[in-house]
Amino acid sequence: MIVYVSAGLLALLTLSIPVGIVLFLLGLGVDSFFSPFPLIKGLGNLVWSSSNSATLIAIPFFVLLGEILVRSGVATRTYSALDKWVSWLPGGLIHANIATATMFSATSGSSVATSATVATVAMPQAERLGYDPKLFSGAIAAGGTLGIMIPPSINLIVYGFLTQSSIPQLFLAGLVPGIALALLFVLVTALICAMRPDLGGEQRRFPLSEMLGALTDLLPIIVLFTVIIGTIYNGWATPTEAAAVGVAGALAIAAAFRGVSFRMLMESLTGTIKVTSMIMLVVIGASFLNFTLASAGLGTELRNFLEGLGMTPLTTILVVVLIYIVLGFFIETLSLMVVTIPIIVPLVEAQGYDTIWFGILMIVLIEMALITPPVGLNLYVVQGARKSGHMGEVMLGAVPYVLVMLAMAAALIAFPQIALFLPSVL
Amino acid sequence: MPQSLLQTLRKLNVWVAVLVGIMLLTCAGFILLDIVLRQLGSSFGGTDEISGYAMAIATSWGMAFTMLELGHVRIDLLRSRMATRGRVIMDLMSMLVLTATITLIAVQCWPVVAGSLKNASTANTPLETPLAWVQIPWIAGWAWFAIMAWLTFIAAVVLVLRGQFDETESAIGAFAEQDALL
């Protein structure tokens, strides 16, 4: 059954059938071939119960929050404000790319939107100030990936929903690795640019008065992030309630910057529906596949399979990591995550690993998939925004950051506490 | 003719998407009010339940809009390496598979609603919401998606038969990757 599902998955995906539909078809296949009783009778109930969810409504809220911030021009202000704060480092403006991406991902939860925004704002500056396009664009692509790690993360909500693990715990677990990744990106950039100053650009210092002035553009976003995350961690609000607060906050910020218009609201709403339905078709498909696999006895089969292989838990994890790296070359974030959860998570759990910890490890690997060729969505987004030069430059520029992510994955395996410390104390 | 049909479907679904968006905004507003009320020591009660229903309805009604905007993710590793004809064939096939699957889903969802109607089921909550009230709009969304999918598929077949491959691609092709999630 494991082999059938994996092979069927790859074959159907290659045929370019929509990912959500592929998951339904596989579920129907498991039902016809492996289940002693007809599971299709459960389909309707499953479609109802997996979308009738007060947890998942946080997804459209967080998407909308990001849409509002991006479409009202708040991103542009943030970028120039952060430029004043971080451009004294070796590598100059590149750090503003990473910092803006980090900040936006922290509020919006979508990697691709983050990269697109930063790329559109940053690219003209790079040309004007004479930056090397490789590292500059690579940093944007890599910085954008943080959106799925730093809470609130839509991917973590989906993971939590499908594996029935606590979303606040996942958010807590993602905080330290996410911020550590952002800091490591900055450190690596500074090191590279200190050794090869030609790759970076001019280091610029701004007078303190200008830095403080820029705070008026930064503070609203920082406050918004703190409110969203703070209320969840304090137990004052569920992730859904915090997301609703976030939407109101984003609207208030956009209004304060005079970025609200009828057109912008309409675009934000339709953009939100588009992304949400895309996510939900995949999530409902995965819930159905999950259900058929579990009913057809995946658990027993997995145990036998693992005993047959005689792998230690560590080898299992290493094999899983390898699978994600290879699949990550070809499949993108959410699809990669959702299609593998029904098979991989029970396998990892059977080996005694913590699902919260594995969620974070998986997110690091999936972030990597966003910036590894041939299919790396963020690479295309950044290339699409810069409108000149070769794709290869962005890929090359992303390499240092891919290495950082690999190091982070290794660190998570060696020291699970990086992710699990915060959830255990709070 | 097929183009004007597709045009109409798109326009119609933009409105659906806006309405669904407004419903979600309203829901966010209710949640906010509820948080405020809770601080004052009272509560609407059942905001959770209502947001669940809103999500189910938003999900089913948003699907067709996303389909027409080419928003449902497809892995186009093989597809993007093919010539126009090959791509068009893959698009048509994938659209047919989608249409058939969605029709099956819509049909399979009916017993859920029929059951709620027959037993006059209410939610096992303080609100005791009659489930049919929320499940009928929900299944209508899936039925809408199925109908939209069939109409789009038929329009695409006509376009292919006329040899208008570019138009087919913009109707049922794979998304432009960078636009997919914006």
Structure, briefly:
The complex is a heterodimer of chains A (426) and B (182). Chain A is an all-alpha fold. Chain A has 20 helices and no strands.
Structure commentary:
The complex is a heterodimer of chains A (426) and B (182). By secondary structure, chain A is mainly α. Chain A contains 20 helices and no strands. In chain A, helix 8 (133-145) crosses helix 18 (377-386) and helix 15 (313-330) runs antiparallel to helix 16. Chain A starts with a helix and ends with a helix. In chain B, 74% of the residues lie in helices and 0% in strands. In chain B, helix 2 (47-68) runs parallel beside helix 4 (131-161), helix 3 runs antiparallel to helix 4 (131-161) and helix 4 (131-161) packs antiparallel against helix 5. Residues 176-182 of chain B have low confidence and may be disordered. Chain B is mostly helical. Chain B contains five helices and no strands. Chain B has helices at 2-39, 47-68, 84-119, 131-161, 165-172.
- Put simply, the count of helices of chain A is 20
Overall mean confidence score, pLDDT of chain A: 87
Number of strands of chain A: 0
- Approximate shape of chain A: globular
Largest sheet of chain B: none
Classify the beta-strand content of chain B into a percent band: under 5%
Succession of helices and strands of chain A:
HHHHHHHHHHHHHHHHHHHH
- The pLDDT mean of chain B sits at 89
- Give helix and strand order of chain B, one letter per element, not per position: HHHHH
* Backbone structural class of chain B: mainly alpha
End-to-end Cα distance of chain A, whole Å, is 40 Å
- Assess the beta-strand content of chain A as a share of residues: under 5%
User: Helical proportion of chain B?
Assistant: over 70%
| Overall morphology of chain B | elongated
Low-pLDDT stretches of chain B: 176-182
Structural class of chain A: mainly alpha
Cα gyration radius of chain B (Å): 20 Å
- Overall strand count of chain B: 0
Most extensive interface, chain pair and sizes? A-B, 67 and 66 residues
Q: For the terminal residues of chain B, how far apart are their CA atoms?
A: 30 Å
